[in-house]
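Hi there, hope your week has been kind to you so far. No rush at all, and the record is pasted right below.
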Amino acid sequence: MTTAATRGDRRISPVFLGIAAVTAVAGWAVWTDFADATGFAVFLFVTGAWIVSLCLHEYAHARTALHSGDLSVGAKGYLTLNPLKYTHALLSVVLPVLFVIMGGIGLPGGAVYIERGRIHGRWKHSLISAAGPLTNVAFALLCTAPFWLDALDGVPRAFQYALAFLAMLQVTAAILNSLPIPGLDGYGVIEPWLSYRIRRQVEPIAPFGLIAVFAILWIPEVNIAFFDTIHTLLRALGVEEYQRYCGYDLYRFWRGLFDEQDPGCAVG
């Protein structure tokens, strides 16, 4: 019989603490202009913060499941915030980071494994699925707070740009993961309310949901509409397009080795 999570099961992992420490140091380097290569510091800060948000996303699923009746999440290590404990570490961390590096888009991570049979009540199942995207929403609000609070005085431009780009990643992750497509959290929210027949029919295609999303995003009209939505939301939160663009430009520090970075984004 599975018992409640022990204190050890809930202890924050040194792996997560290490990632958070690197993020904090890199953020300090961006803020103080301590680093000789600002772009590299932005890269470490945004990547570290992105991984932290992925860990918190999965933690939110697991913590909500714990309080909903699945006591097994503690023994699986999901409450330690250790990204190496996730069921699909590749999908949960590696691929999302690669997509940020290659395309500047917040790819939803792979989910932790929840023993749904232990949980009773459709609302609980929906809340478990919603907990992850809601974490991204909270992270986006935190990143954009200096913008919509009009509190940017004294905030270095490089740090503003880094926050703007990080906010875009959170917004894209929240929107993509909230789509009612099998395999994504949005579908998990509505799945408990569907008939058994429909759920059985959808189950075989769930592993391919994320692939379908990116295939659809390749359609030019869909891609334009998607990013127009992202830009509109961020603009409503006080983040201008040039700030997001410059954040991504700084993030790709390696471009300076081959091409000149946009002079309009210079921070020195």
